[in-house]
Amino acid sequence: MNRTTARSECESEKYFQSTIQIEDLFASKGRVKILKILVEEGELNISEIGRRARLNYGTTVQHLEFLCKTGIIQEKNFGRIRIYRLKEEDIRARALRSFFSLWYNQ
After folding, report:
1. 3-state secondary structure of 61
2. I need a labelling partner for 65 at 20 to 30 A (CA). Which of 19, 32, 74, 101 fits?
């Protein structure tokens, strides 16, 4: 999948966003790690997310594409660099931030 295709999928997948089940979101340990990292750090590029999650580049990209399709995270492009962050406008992203904060700050 080329960068243009990934970007358009990340920006528009309304049907996917409305049908995603929470079980699918939390089905992968890698996705949970990525979400936790984005909650803690805010914005990061793919390489840094992968390094902190201890995932290879390809796996990191797959998880980020899935999370973009859900509408929970968003991608920003600065030339060749792609930065990811929680999409704070999405109520589910805000709920995830609260969930992780409560879970890990006990």
Report:
1. helix
2. 101
**CATH topology assigned to domain 3-104:** Arc Repressor Mutant, subunit A (1.10.10)
Give the Cα separation of 60 and 89 in Å (integer): 23
Asked if pLDDT for residue 80 goes beyond 60, the answer is yes
Task: Report the sign of the C-alpha dihedral through residues 58, 98, 25, 72, in that order.
Answer: negative
Q: Are 96 and 86 in contact (CB under 8 A)?
A: yes
**Domain residue ranges in the chain:** 3-104
Q: Answer whether 52's CB lies under 8 Å from 76's CB.
A: no
Residue 22 burial (10 A CB sphere; 0-12, 13-18, 19+): exposed
Beta strand 73-78 with 81-86 is: antiparallel
Q: List the beta bridge partners of residue 44.
A: 84
The Cβ of residue 96 has, within 10 Å, a number of other Cβ atoms equal to 21
Q: Which two tokens stand for residue 45?
A: 């590029």
